[in-house]
Amino acid sequence: MINVLLSFYDIHKSWAQDIIKPLLHADMKVLYIPFSFAESDMNNHETFEKCRLKHNADILTAFHYYDITDIDYIDYFLDNHITAVEKIQNADVIFFTGGFPDQYLVRLNEFDIVDTIRNSDKLIIGASAGAMVQLDNYHITPDDDYPEYQYQDGLGLVSGFEIEVHYCHSDIQEAGLKRVIKEKQLPTYTIPNDGGLLVKDNQIIPFGSAALVQ
After folding, report:
1. Beta sheet of 203-208, edge-to-edge order
2. Distance in angstroms (rounded) separating the CA atoms of residues 133 and 37
3. Which of 12, 87, 101, 211 has the fewest Cβ atoms nearer than 10 Å?
């Protein structure tokens, strides 16, 4: 499994191309899993579709740049465990969307597809919440959606380090970084909106403006 952790979906931008281009080819099948929405956005299929489509254009733009057109998604309301597993097995790339990382894991467990993802050999790409949830556990820096600093369990696809997504040198991010470094004693990477991490063969490779801070 190869993992890419980002803040935004911009894998087609110049800062990402040297890392991403060798990973992708035109005949690949991409599956994105838009399960990271707020609970209020998952009340019915109409609200789900409204939120999904906000992500869809950016995902299509990113992969179309690499001539990939076979792009599907798991529908929270129309798919089920069986169809979701089939879609995962048929995909070459799994993309995790941004949003609410703790809600992501809840819904993946609802579909009982966590082990399917963990045991796959897919290329996993995720942005923001989709990056955080790839870790075995992660911290959440306080923001409008999460008023308190907290730790959450992730999928455990990658481990042994921590990340701060959407890093912009804010005071609250700096405080969160100091806390996670002190409490976890792990290598910690900042991932600004024009940066990412490639995790391959037990190596962590920052690209763009991502950087190791501890």
Report:
1. 70-73, 29-33, 93-96, 123-127, 2-6, 195-200, 203-208
2. 13
3. 211
In the numeric block, which tokens belong to residue 108?
């993946």
**Contact partners, residue 57, CB within 8 Å, separation at least 6:** none
CB of 123 within 8 A of CB of 92?
yes
Q: What is the DSSP letter of 42?
A: G
Which H or E run includes 113?
none
**150 CB contacts (<8 Å, ≥6 apart)?**
139, 140
Residue 154's nearest CA partner among 173, 131, 177, 179 is 131
Residues 6+ apart with CB under 8 A from 14: none
- Cα separation, 189 vs 206, in Å, equals 8
- Say if CB 10 and CB 208 are below 8 A apart: no
CA 162-165-169 angle, 5° bins:
105
Q: What is the three-class DSSP state of 212? A: strand
pLDDT tens digits, residue range 31-61? Answer: 999 998 888 777 899 989 988 998 899 999 9
Full-model pTM: 0.95
CA atoms of 112 and 109, how far apart (whole Å): 5
Sign (positive or negative) of CA dihedral 118, 140, 166, 203 = negative
User: How is residue 124 annotated by DSSP?
Assistant: E
Question: Tokens for 32?
Answer: 């994105």
